[in-house]
Request: fold
Amino acid sequence: MSGEITPTGKPSGPGSSPELRASHADRDRVVDVLRIAAGDGLLTADELDERLEAALSARTLGELAGLTADLPSVGASGAEAKDSVRIEQVHSGAVERVGRWVVPRRLELAVTYCEVTLDFTDAVITHDTLRVDVGMTGKTLTLVTRPGIVVDTDGLRLVHCKVEHRPAPAHPDTPVALRVELVGEKAHGRVVVRPPRRTFGQWLLRRPATLSPEKYR
Reply:
């Protein structure tokens, strides 16, 4: 489609024009690429701040493309989202998806008495919706969010289980980068939705645990 850009912010398709206006989704994709590049050591903290500010104020696809022209594409790093992932565990160690993991389009949890943590703080997001089919008994299902990630538990049936929902602080204009839809059944234990925990230094300085919410706009 004309006007679309790749995950690196480069215009795609023969009809694309660098002068076309950039959408919120276009800016979000570039912000993700910049954040991942910084995590891989390709950008310094100052370079990341400078490029994030430019990305969030960019008006055209051409301006966005220039911010990622010297960076490898997300696809080149093997970050390709799978259509469906199934996790099946019984009375074993904790299930964790943390760090720079690629969010699939659908995730099946068939878990009995195992802790499950899905940490989206540094996750690679290539689409706007994740459906989590929950078939879980006991222990805690924890989702760690960041600004722009919304968790919907309305489709989840709770049996002797409670939900603790503490979403990450976000600016009112922060666009939704990923909607996580929990469906199925969670029996016993808890479902916890929370922002990242503060480090000891952040606690001392009373700083937020993530980048300023405006940088995810």
